[in-house]
Description:
Low-confidence stretches: 1-9, 132-136, 274-282
Number of helices: 10
Largest sheet: 4 strands, parallel
CATH topology of the largest domain: Jelly Rolls
Mean pLDDT: 81
Strand order of the largest sheet: 1-2-3-4
Amino acid sequence: MEPHQQGALQAMGTQIQILRLQGFLFFGTANQLLSQVKQGLESLSSSDLPQFMVLDFEQVTGMDSSVAYSFIKLKQAAQPPLRLVLTQLRPEFEELLYRQGCLVPNDPIYHLEPSLDSSLAWCEAQLLDTLSWRRRRYVPLPLQLQKLFADPEHIPAFMDYLDKVQLSADTTLFDQGQPADYLYFLETGQLRTFITPAGGDPVPDRTYQPGTMLGATAFFTQSPHPVSAVADQPSVVYGLSRERWQAMAAQNPRTAATFQGMVIEQLSDQLIRASDSLKSLLA
């Protein structure tokens, strides 16, 4: 994620609220939850209202059929643009909510995600959709790199070490478990990543827009890719191979050091944000 995008999301941090549910849910506990949410929303000014409320069901052990009524009432209380994101919902809970009419296909209020991480990523992607850089015209990669390199004089030399790759829709860029011999920059199009548990179905991870970098952590730690990446639409990426990176370090050490420093700074920011999110959940 770009530094200016991270700053914008931090400024909009109150737009995403997380509620962790636990235990066995029955009418009484669900109705109490409904009252707490409604009171919380009513206590906020219109400018402070969140756009997303994530309900985490990881620690929910069971659910009574009467709970669906409370979630229907919660849905009615959640006026657009507020979206309610249900995460880690067991298949039997999801089936119950559909059967009782709480969930409907293409639901305008409720959105389902498999994990808390994917829920936050989805909410952030929706927030970024509202920002101007997601609606801008085509911007060549050298211009995008100006946000990464404090000194633009490094960019022409850096571009000389990149390989341009054109991807058609549904083309796999790399597979989970594959050696990370390249890191990539997305110039145009859209990529999505997903995780496939052993013996399980693919789980959505993130969606990447132009101007973002993929695979840097695995590349620099020389570890396999933890996710798979696929083009959602025709896309253009630039790849930096390990061989070309080593050549850059030998031939243009200042450019290589500048780039590596930028990557370390970005990864550190991501770790800090992840740590802050974890602390807020445990508070």
